[in-house]
Amino acid sequence: MAISILNKLRTKKGLFYLLALLLALLPLMMSNFYINLLGQFLAFAILVIGLDLLWGYTGVLSLGHGIFFGFGAYVMAIYVTIESSNGAVPDFMLWSGMSELPWMWVMLSNPFAAIALAIIAPMILAFILGFFTFRNRIKGVYFTILTQALVLVTVTLIVSQQKFTGGTDGLTNLSTIFGFSLSDPRTQTVIYFITLALLVGIFLFCYRLVNSRFGKVLVAIRDGENRLRFSGYNTSYYKILVFTISAGIAGLAGMMYVLQIGIISPSMIDIIPSIEMALWVALGGRATLLGPVLGAILVNTGTTYFSENYPDLWNYFIGLVFIIVIVFLPGGLMSLGEKISKKWRNFNAKRTNTGTFPEKNS
Amino acid sequence: MQSEQIQAHSQKKILNCKDIIVKFGEFTALNKFSFHIDRKEIHFLIGPNGAGKTTFLDVLCGLTKITKGKAVFDNDYDLNGKPEFEIARMGIGRKFQAPTIFPYLTVQENLEIAMKQNKKVFSILKAKMTKKEKEKLDKQMETIGLTKQKTLIAGNLSHGQKQWLEIGMVMMQEPELLLLDEPIAGMTEEEEEKTGKLLQELKKQCTIIVVEHDMDFVSKYAERVTVMHEGALLSEGSMEEVQNNDKVKEVYLGSKGAV
Questions:
Q1: Which distant-in-sequence residues (6+ apart) come within 8 Å of A105 by Cβ?
Q2: pLDDT lower than 50: segments of chain A
Q3: Angstrom distance (rounded) from CA A173 to CA B257
Q4: What pLDDT score does A145 carry?
Q5: Which is nearest to B100 in space by CA: A219, A78, A300, A224?
Q6: What does the pLDDT average to over B97-123?
Q7: Does A212 contact B at CB distance below 8 Å?
Q8: pLDDT band at B97 (very low <50, low <70, confident <90, very high)
Q9: Surface of B (114-173) touching A: CB under 8 A
Q10: Contact (Cβ atoms closer than 8 angstroms) between residue B231 and residue B29
Q11: Number of alpha helices (DSSP H) and beta strands (DSSP E) in chain B
Q12: What pLDDT score was predicted for residue B80?
């Protein structure tokens, strides 16, 4: 009995449950400030699961997930801004000479429409981009560059359309949601737990996906897309679907993130944050789902810790950690666990996971 | 009466290629090459390097576009300009020269995704392993001799085992026409023997075109042989006929010494 529980815990799903339990208990012993901060990291953790599905399993690297994340965040922020000001025209619009809310905003004054659009809008954008790139067999680094271009275009658009978006300042006046004050710690604790629940849900959804036959096809696309075409698969449609799902997850993450940080601006969804997201995935371990979640939480926790304690040096610390991991642990943190448990595993040589990203010399 | 004749004819020929020209820039890889093959026949393609053998297979599976000419599969399906996945779904399976398997999936998973099934996105999303599929997979692993390696990551197989796995994967597609590019390259003698037996087993299920360099292997298993030279047909017939053909001796066999 005890051994079977132990064996279950050694699987990725088991470890994830353990992590979720820990995350559910942590708020008991943390100040409100840190609960809020950890909640933001959990939103990032949701995003990287989708990014891992796309990059780790399917082998398509997107460096534009900040935009999908940003879509979710902006849509939610617009709704909250309208609610907070009771439908009055925000200050930045008045300064730009607008006397009433533009139709896009009016549409988002309905909470259901806002929540739905925060997820669906990034999916539509990803579908369109995926349709034109994957179907024309644009792949690898060319696709990645296109996603970067998408970031650049979108951010420029947001900045230039100041009267609709708040420009470089972004949207800052977020005070209530469904009548609850966003600065109230109780509201934040509830949002924390909603974020955690969504994280568990998204993890289980993706876990099921990658362990299904569909998941095997994704790994096959990553490792031999051409071969798979000759087996009768139109791989483009698979990639479009995964890209779209991944963007939807990013939108969801952005929505939860903005509710906790209380502000959204173009610099938070720009090129650098977009690249950082991919780094969390690589650091945690591609094609493991659990690894990227750990990566997102640990890197952000580390960044916070170092920036508080070594304000002048923290950037170097983070850079050093990245270099160490990339040189010594190309499989990410998850491969560390695997290396340690290799002996353990020899007992039952049965394979427990599929499609884990290659270690350097295997 | 007439329709019966047509039907009888169509059942006989599975592939009809007429005057195929393939050019890569200035270079002519296939020069008015014509070829046809009966159902359930095993046919070997031989010829010196650069004769256009692999290019011909590439044309048949949709990898290379035809510059001029016609290739018709199953009597009415024109192969030119069709995407690879569609050709594969129509029933042409291709095994490449270097073993191309999916290294991070297990042997069984490799076969599972290659298996003949509706391969559209939403069907695969809903797909669950049925009992019948499981039996098919087990039987295939038995045929290619990889039952023990069922849960092994395919990247860890030996070279020969990878070749068999790929043949197994192509067979799981239940093709009507199987294209094999140097299936015994890099194999030990023992493995060659096994592969030859496997081919004879496969012949019962489908038509096979094999590109091969190993003359001993060819003469052992060939029914009909086509010799290609500089993108064109040089000679066709049984191995014996081909070997006694003067032109063949001159350009190919002769250059390698007596066979």
A1: A78, A82, A164
A2: 353-354, 358-362
A3: 87
A4: 94
A5: A224
A6: 92
A7: yes
A8: confident
A9: 114, 119-121, 124-125, 127-129, 151, 153, 155, 169, 173
A10: yes
A11: 11, 10
A12: 87
| Percent of chain B whose predicted confidence (pLDDT) is above 70 | 92
Region B135-148: mean pLDDT is 92
Are A273 and A66 within 8 A, CB to CB?
A: yes
| Structural domain containing residue B209 | 34-256
Per-residue tokens: B63: 């990898």
The whole domain housing A270 covers 11-347
Strand, helix or coil for residue B245: coil
Residue A356 counted as domain residue: no
Region B168-182: what's the mean pLDDT? 92
The three-state DSSP-derived secondary structure of B58-127 is HHHHCCCCCCEEEEEECCCEECCCCCHHHHHHHCEEEECCCCCCCCCCEHHHHHHHHCCCCCCHHHHHHC
Answer whether A127 touches B (CB < 8 Å). no
Q: Would you say residue A231 lies in a domain? A: yes
Q: Is residue B135 within 8 Å of residue B143, measured between CB atoms?
A: no
Quick one: tokens of B234? Answer: 């040089």
Please check whether residue B232 lies inside any domain of the structure.
yes
**Total domain count, chain A:** 1
Please report the pLDDT score of residue B214 as a whole number.
Answer: 84
For B21, counting Cβ atoms within 10 Å of its Cβ (0-12 exposed, 13-18 middle, 19+ buried), the class is middle
CB burial class (10 A; 0-12, 13-18, 19+) of residue A227? buried
Is A352 inside any structural domain? no
How many other CB atoms are there within 10 angstroms of residue A106's CB atom? 13
pLDDT above 80 (res B105): yes
The Cα A228–Cα A134 span in angstroms is: 15
Contacts of B83 in chain A (CB under 8 A): 229, 234
pLDDT class of B1 with cuts at 50, 70, 90:
very low
B12: in domain: no
pLDDT tens, position by position, B59-93? 999 999 999 998 999 888 888 889 999 999 999 99
Q: Is residue B150 part of a domain?
A: yes
Residue in B61, B96, B109 closest to A354 by CB: B109
Q: What is the CATH number of the domain that holds B84?
A: 3.40.50.300
Contacts of A229 in chain B (CB under 8 A): 83-85, 88
Q: What is the CA radius of gyration of chain B?
A: 19
In a domain, B94, yes or no: yes
Whole-number Å distance between alpha carbons of B57 and B61: 6
C-alpha to C-alpha distance for A77 and A255, rounded to whole angstroms: 8
